[in-house]
Amino acid sequence: MVFMPKKPFPIVEVTLKTIIGGGQAIGTLDTGKKCMVWGGLPGERVSVQITKKKSNFVEGVVVDVLEPSEERCDAKDPDSYLSTSPWQIMRFEAESHYKSALIEEAFELHDVVLPQPITVWSDGVEYGYRNKIEYSFWYDETADKLGFAFFRRGTHGKIPVRGTSLATPALEAAALEVVDALNAVHADGRHLKTLLVRSNMAGDVAWQLYAKDTSFPTDAFVTALGDGADRGEVIYSNPKSPASVITERIYAGSDIVLEDTILDVPFRYATEGFFQINLPVYEQALRDMREWVEDGKPVVDLYSGVGTIGLTIGGDDVTLVEINEHAVREMQQNIASLGKTGAKAILAASENALDHITGDATIIVDPPRAGLHADVIAKLLETAPKRIIYLSCNPVTQARDVALLAEKYGIRHHQGYNFFPRTPHIEHLVILDAK
Q: Is-contact 163 176, C-beta < 8 A?
């Protein structure tokens, strides 16, 4: 399904040359404008429905493949793959090649040369790896039922879906139980925002239903769900916010906190809290990072979430800094249950906790896509810790930060990870040592 603007843009033909940082393939139109498209691969001649026009480029979606690439394969979710995992059309073996190329391009953009060949580690699992999915809602007038939907990439339009091949089986089953209960009580989808569902490695599930109206029939819905209601929450979320944020918890079941084990360390986490999506690949990244943590040195873990890095590889003397109060609450419980008397949880933005960055510590950072705050970089340059372990979900901002730190640091090691198969997203580890 292709998004059509109010005033239809034309369909054009273009030969695609390469893949760019956001994951789109790009070519040049006869007019000289760049054309960035979803649903195409390098080397293909395609017809593209233009969805957005700018002065020097256009964006669009492939509607027909005229000359297919040898790397093309059928999408497992043909109707919705562009919303969730636009690289489903690419043979899985090609992913590592393109992700390595995107890492190299990001660092070249900032004139940083990576010292070793770029590789991207994968456990070979293509689907069923996601332990967290957020669904929107869709009313099927033909079936007279409420169902799930994803947003069309780059628009506010929706695509009805039954589920997604990326999700764990337990997560999919729980989501369908919830929507069946919603239909049983004739819930009005206009009063709902989203359904957030998580599952752990053992197959346990927790969910949160976000409603825009406090008059949602919570009691009837909980009754319709039966035992499944114990694993979930109904949450009023202020309709003025487009995001699913917690304004008030209307209902909470008795079994809503999940537990997982990472490198043999148990963790608790809330449904709305941050926790890694693909644990087997994450564990490999942690094993690699652990090789660079020196015994006996204090560790400072910035942007620490519920503490899955610092509490697994950070040793006994570890300070964990996190801005999300829900994550810190779970982190504190994790510290207590592990008996980590030398671990300290700090509720603060990393840029507001600069006193914890000292020259005698190993610094671990795993920032959001925006990368490190400028004040954090300035403090690192001022105190010059011997080693910085930098895991990133955005090689472009990581490369920018590494270039800024190059005044005092050199790259000792780097490694990519395929945390999110069938998508353009990349995790990249860089070990920086003081010169």
A: yes
- CA–CA separation, 236 and 255 (whole Å): 19
Q: Rounded distance, CA 129 to CA 132, Å? A: 9
The one-character DSSP state at 8 is P
Average pLDDT, the chain: 94
Residue 147 near residue 160 (C-beta atoms within 8 A): yes
Token pair belonging to 131: 């332990």
Tens digit of each residue's pLDDT (9 = 90 or more) over 26-47: 999 999 999 999 999 999 999 9
Distance between CA atoms of 38 and 49, rounded to whole angstroms? 10
Q: What is the pTM of this model?
A: 0.91
Pairwise CA distance, residues 266 & 279, whole Å: 13
Between residues 162 and 68, which one has the greater pLDDT?
68
Q: Name all domains of the chain by residue range, CATH numbers in brackets.
A: 11-72 (2.40.50.140), 97-124+278-434 (3.40.50.150), 132-258 (2.40.50.1070)
Looking at per-residue pLDDT, the higher value among 155 and 267 belongs to: 267
Angle between helices 169-184 and 218-225 (to 10 degrees): 130
- Beta strand 205-211 with 145-151: parallel, antiparallel or unpaired? unpaired
Residues in contact with 190: Cβ distance below 8 Å, sequence separation at least 6, in sequence order: 212
Give the residue with greater pLDDT, 155 vs 328: 328
Other CB atoms within 10 A of residue 219 CB: 11
What distances in angstroms separate CA 128 from CA 123, 204, 285, 326, one per listed residue?
13, 15, 20, 27
Chain centre distance of CA 4? 28
Distance CA 390, CA 378 (A): 16
Q: And the tokens for 95?
A: 């992913």
